[in-house]
Amino acid sequence: FMTDLAPRPRSAYPHFLAITTRWMDNDAYGHVNNVTYYSYFDTAVNTHLIHAGGLAPERDAVVGYVVESACRFHLPLSFPQVIDAGLAVAKVGTSSVTYVIGLFAEGSPDAAATGHFVHVWVDRATQRPVPWGWLFQTSRALQMSSCSVITGTPEPCTSSGSRPSMSIRTTSRSWIIMSITTPTSTERNVM
């Protein structure tokens, strides 16, 4: 799965995080080194999951591994700029979430870089993928608020394109467990 990395407007991202560049982020050419952009993607996604979703990476039984990331550069960034990192969800798989990140110079309407970042959620003990049901409420909320911008539809993103149903229960670790099912063809006709 490869996300379209064309520049998107700020309105394509329902969540933003301000990231301060550091002196060491610049390379010999006076702009942020290309490798550093991936660190900004990681920071944007995980900060959101920690603060909005209750992720506790040091102790949770389910952890997200980055299995794919990509970046397209549009404009240079450099220290001491502040970066506005926009975050949206492009796709939810069986045990994965694909995020789309836009990096903007503070206050700029134009994306300096666009990237994607794929988390696969695995059981820490077994190292096996865990179905979508173990993902956080924040992923679902992020998906609901951003899918219309990414896909042009007001419905939540699904791999099949149909509207999922959902049940939620909270566990003792502040995880939100979700059971998402795709409607049958009979149910689709009713919706």
Characterization of the model:
The chain is 21% helix and 34% strand. It is built from three helices and seven strands, in the order βαββββαββα. A five-stranded antiparallel β-sheet has the order 1-3-4-5-2. A two-stranded antiparallel ribbon has the order 6-7. The longest helix is centred in the N-terminal third of the chain and has 20 residues, at 34-53. The relative contact order is 0.20.
Entry keywords:
191 residues; alpha+beta; five-stranded antiparallel β-sheet; two-stranded antiparallel ribbon; disordered C terminus
SSE diagram, text form:
Layout: E1 15-20, H1 34-53, E2 62-73, E3 82-92, E4 96-105, E5 111-123, H2 137-151, E6 165-170, E7 176-181, H3 185-190
Antiparallel strand pairs: 1-3, 2-5, 3-4, 4-5, 6-7
Brief summary:
By secondary structure, the chain is of the alpha+beta class.
Helix content: 10-25%
Helix count from the secondary structure assignment: 3
**What string, H for helix and E for strand, traces the elements in order?**
EHEEEEHEEH
Counting DSSP E segments of at least 2 residues, the number of strands comes to 7
